[in-house]
Design goal:
- The chain has 171 residues and is of the alpha+beta class.
- It has 2 domains: 19-134, Macroglobulin (MG2) domain (Immunoglobulin-like, Sandwich), CATH 2.60.40.1930; 141-171.
- It contains 3 helices and 8 strands.
Length: 171
């Protein structure tokens, strides 16, 4: 029985993420080490949940009093699309991070600019981000399609166990 519980626990926890998500890039700029994380990997068209960690480059301690701005720019042959948002602690699950929810409208390569401003220092780092097209609806919503059959199988399994217990307890 413990082996089954261990396997079930492993299956359920194997898809868990850390608070910030996947590390996209890390850069050093002036007095800061700046890291960009994404909740989804890969980043897709739609709402992109991006988080930034700002650390002092001297002692790696987190900087918690900065103003952080995320700016994504995409250059097309005919146009330039951009989206910006301030990253804030209030939007982050992990309060050591600054988080922002950006609405990315088209797939392709983006240039990410992260601006960090404190009372004493400021920094600007850039990096590249590849945004993928959105998932087809069937793949995006697969948990909803799987939930009902799983519930039915668990119910049937429960009923069989109850029937076995009743049969074992009969004189």
């Amino acid at each position: 029985m413990r082996v089954r519980q261990g396997i079930l626990l492993f299956v359920l926890t194997s898809s868990l993420w850390a608070d910030g998500g996947k590390l996209l890039f890390q850069r050093k700029a002036g007095a800061f080490n700046i890291s960009l994380f994404s909740a989804e990997s890969p980043v897709r068209v739609g709402k992109a949940d991006l988080s930034v960690m700002v650390q002092n480059s001297s002692d790696q301690s987190p900087v918690l009093d900065a103003d952080v701005l995320l700016h994504l720019v995409r250059h097309d042959a005919n146009s330039i699309s951009s989206v910006s948002a301030p990253a804030r602690h209030e939007k982050a699950t992990n309060k050591l991070l600054y988080a922002a929810l950006l609405d990315v409208t088209s797939p392709g390569p983006y240039r990410v600019e992260i601006s960090v401003q404190t009372k004493k220092e400021s920094a600007l780092v850039t990096g590249d981000l590849e945004v993928q097209p959105p998932l087809p609806p069937i793949l995006a919503h697969w948990p909803y399609f799987v939930a009902l059959p799983v519930v039915v199988v668990l119910f049937v399994f429960n009923q069989r166990l109850k029937r076995k217990r009743r049969a074992a307890n009969r004189p």
